[in-house]
Amino acid sequence: MSQTPDDGAEQATAPPGINVAVPSIARVYDFVLGGKDNFASDRAAAQSLLDSMPETPLMARDNRELLRRAVRWLVAEAGIDQIIDIGSGLPTAGNVHELARDVHPGVRVVYVDVDPIVLAHGRAILAGDEDTEVIQADIREPDGIFGDEATQRLIDLDRPVAVLVSSLLHHLGDDEDPVGVIRAIVDRLPSGSYVLVANFVDPGDDARAPKIENAFLNGGLGTGRFRTFAEQEPYFAGLDLVEPGLVFANDWKTDLTTPRDSPVHRLYAGGVARKP
């Protein structure tokens, strides 16, 4: 893709390894959530989504709320004190390590993202925090995650660990075998570990799902599959789903701050499961 003059100016200020002319999933989400760590290509891709459905940012909000409730449950109820957040995205309000340490100050967290800008910003924010690290790795290459020095330093795979895979698998195409990808992660976890998986969902009776999927796939980002519940259930094969199971995001262990009457309630789903 050729660069516009604006791209050239942004490229000059971008961290090494970042092509600002190509939109990034992490930066598109950053823009949708009101962040400032994004470039013109990211904003253009995000605008395509907003043009398709102005309520698109509410899916990101509902995902963040599900993540908040799940992290608190994992630490407070399941006793987890080490977490790997794969596809963590750019730092935002209510980061996983902050949520977890509100419950237990000793929780260790490894953030994982493929985007180098996440690495740059994350390490700047986490400087001096010896129990939290951010690494650059791809979920499709789990050896790069579990073999990283930071992961090996912070995560003890002889004890249960929670792995968060939120808003990530829907950015893998069917040809990339998202079921096999999550299975390769689970296979590396010890018994008693937990996995959170959350994604866009096509409930089958909401015409907006294929419309927004088209905006994701053809509006500049190039990824974003709205899979049915039946397509997502295999992510949890061989695991014990925590009640209430794989459900719409705002139906998972609701609390007083869970969004009520969300206009995108039926477009995002997730669940948490334990490895026997």
Care to describe what's here?
The protein is an alpha/beta fold. It has a single domain (56-274), classed as Vaccinia Virus protein VP39 (Rossmann fold), CATH 3.40.50.150. It has 11 helices and 8 strands. It has helices spanning 5-13, 25-32, 40-52, 56-76, 96-103, 116-126, 142-146, 149-154, 178-186, 208-218, 229-232, and strands at residues 82-86, 108-113, 132-136, 162-166, 194-200, 240-241, 247-248, 268-274. Residues 1-5 have low confidence and may be disordered.
Could you give a short description of this structure?
The chain is α/β, with parallel strands linked by helices and about 280 residues long. Helix content is about 40%, strand content about 15%. The chain has a single domain (about 55-275), classed as Vaccinia Virus protein VP39 (Rossmann fold), CATH 3.40.50.150.
CATH superfamily: Vaccinia Virus protein VP39
The amount of helix comes to 25-40%
**What is the CATH C level class, in words?**
Alpha Beta
Please name the CATH topology. Answer: Rossmann fold
State the end-to-end distance.
47 Å
Q: Which structural class best describes the helix and strand composition?
A: alpha/beta
Helix-strand topology string = HHHHEHEHEHHEHEHHEEE
What is the β-strand count?
Answer: 8
Structural shape: globular
Mean pLDDT rating:
90
Gross CATH architecture: 3-Layer(aba) Sandwich
Radius of gyration: 18 Å
**Tally of structural domains:** 1
Total of DSSP H or I helical runs spanning 4+ residues: 11
> Which stretches are poorly predicted, pLDDT < 50 over at least 5 residues?
1-5
